[in-house]
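Entry for the shared binder. Reason: the reviewer on the internal report wants the predicted structure included alongside the sequence.
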Amino acid sequence: MSTTVAPDRILKELAALWVEEGKQGATGVLRACSMTLIVIAEERADTSELGETIAALMPEHPARAILVRVRAGSERALSERVYQQCWMPFGQRRQICCEQIELTASDAALGDLPSVLLPLIVADLPVIVWCRSPRLVPMPEFAQIGRLADKVILDSAQFERPAEGLGEITRAQQGGLRIADLAWTRLTRYREMLARVFENREYFKGLPGIETVSVACAPGYETAGLYMAAWVRDVLAQAGVSVKARASRGAATLSVELASPDLRVLLKREADRLVVNVGDLSYCTHLAPSTDYLLMREELRIVRRDTLFERTLSTAAQLALSSPGV
């Protein structure tokens, strides 16, 4: 592994790939790019699984993908590889191709990455950083990489200590990074289904009487539980209803209960279904598995600032301090 990587050499290799690809047939190749996607992962991470996820995202979100594989170590080292990801849409004869760059860097070389990445970013298009390594988030070098991006996507569920993970994410946001969290993205269907309950006028009339919000979560769902409790509390506060919200362990997956003397709403996951019980009535819907592909597909559609998430993150971080059991 070398100690330096020249961005101009990488760009020349990319140009050569396109020239060579254009010689492959009369049907031609369509060069597609809607953003720069920088994926940061540990070197030991499953290369094939991550590669499949990135490839699956390309047809809907074509991008210049830059995969940064990080290895622990004090030796200052960097290396690179350039290739293409191509597919042929059904019923067409022309391939669509996206550029992919793979960089390998040691911890000691992370400080060199911004100067390598900056020339590789496609001008005038969004820049998304997806960091799959929680240990990098507190590092100053990571903040420098994150400042290149319009959006930094993390997954607080990967942190060993959820409360500390929310704290790290909050500090990153306060440091100027525009953060998204896949633990929050996993809650989209939960939030939609709970909101639909109160589209019913009779249930909506019961909102002012709600006194408590209780979220129970299983291991791996701690930050999702804190987000859900924070979101419900904030939404009710905007409606003029002050409630006590708490999150705790003790459920098979994730459940949310809103309770008042006259109304009880329970939302929980049962196998592949999301079930809502309101009094004696029950409603359910299918809930697809939350794969990295589906979560990233949803997040890549949102480049603008997500003020709802930012507000929920702040409240969730406060709840984490008062919920030592989570």
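Summary line for the report: The CA atoms of residues 233 and 245 lie 6 Å apart.
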